[in-house]
Amino acid sequence: MTALPDDQPAPPRRIADLMELAANRDPVRTAVVHPCDAASLGGAIAAADHGLIEPVLVGPEEKIRAAAGAAGLDITRFELVPVEHSHAAADEACRLARAGQVAALMKGSLHTDELLGAIVDRDIGLRTDRRMSHVFIFEVPDYPRLLLVSDAAIIIAPDLAAKRDIVQNAIDCALALGIPEPRVAVLAAVETVHSAMPSTTDAASLAKMAQRGQIVGGIVDGPLAFDNAISPAAVATKHIVSEVAGRADVLIAPDIEAGNMIAKQLTYFSGALSAGIVIGARVPIILTSRADDELTRLASCAAVLLVAGHQRLKPPR
């Protein structure tokens, strides 16, 4: 792996490092879509107070002001773009992004499908040539670096073309977070190729695509079982020769079910801290959940700030 220049900071190892890296940047102007409850308004305000985003509240004005009043939140310092309902809020947020008036989107109190439906609309949306995918960013106890996991939230059963986009999106995310030449492990149940296991043949194809320049910016290897991806001891036991095995920065799941299980096991069994964003559209997107705590929301906003800055330099095609 290429050595870091003397003046380049070390890659972030913790969520706190990510927050510190983002704190040195200007806040990203972000459309907060239909923030009509205390959780979505509070999350946006907290991120603004930390200098991560500059919120633009998009939604029904009366509902937004009523939610702010009921929760005791002051929104007078933020721009409010009034629209009639949640569908219109999603459409207007996409229009603002297309016009360059915001550089990120943040989900409020509307359904995820409603927001994503507007984003992928061929006429008014924010599509690029790439599929959108979700990237989790984990700080796992005892793991010596941030660990990215994709896709655990959007693409249900990706084919090889979709997996290529998932890998490239994850690499772009890692680069934006300050991880140079990220090491990407494409996961399967085993580390050998079997024709009866499509996940292994896809993984091998993705590794070859990276070698041929069809995926750029990182080192891709697979198939790798989970232990071989993250454990140097497992790699040594199995005599695996790989630049990725045992020290992966990114884990690519074979499908959404595997990815979701990995993400939740890291959270609930390992006590991992996390952030999560969607990339592959014209602007990055924060898909907040009502179950997210404040640190998760802030870390996701920090990640979006860094990715938005990276996309301004190198937008997805």
Notes on the structure:
By secondary structure, the protein is α/β, with parallel strands linked by helices. It has two domains: 27-128 and 281-317, Rossmann fold (3-Layer(aba) Sandwich), CATH 3.40.50; 131-278, Isopropylmalate Dehydrogenase, CATH 3.40.718. The protein is built from eleven helices and eleven strands. The strands form two sheets. It has a six-stranded mixed beta sheet, sandwiched between helices. Strands 3-2-1-4-11 form a five-stranded parallel beta sheet, with helices on both faces.
Residue share in helix: 40-55%
Q: CATH class of the largest domain, anyone?
A: Alpha Beta
Shape designation: globular
CATH topology of the largest domain: Isopropylmalate Dehydrogenase
Taking the sheet with the most strands, its summary is: 6 strands, mixed
Number of helices: 11
**Strand order, sheet with most strands:** 8-7-9-6-5-10
**Which residue ranges are poorly predicted, with pLDDT under 50 across at least 5 consecutive positions?**
none
Average pLDDT metric = 93
DSSP summary, beta strand count: 11
Number of domains: 2
Looking at the overall shape, the CATH architecture of the largest domain is 3-Layer(aba) Sandwich
Q: How far apart are the first and last residues' alpha carbons, in Å?
A: 27 Å
What structural class is derived from the secondary structure elements? Answer: alpha/beta
Task: Estimate what percentage of residues fall within beta strands.
Answer: 15-25%
User: How would you spell out the order of helices and strands?
Assistant: HEHEHEHEHEEHEHEHHEHEEH
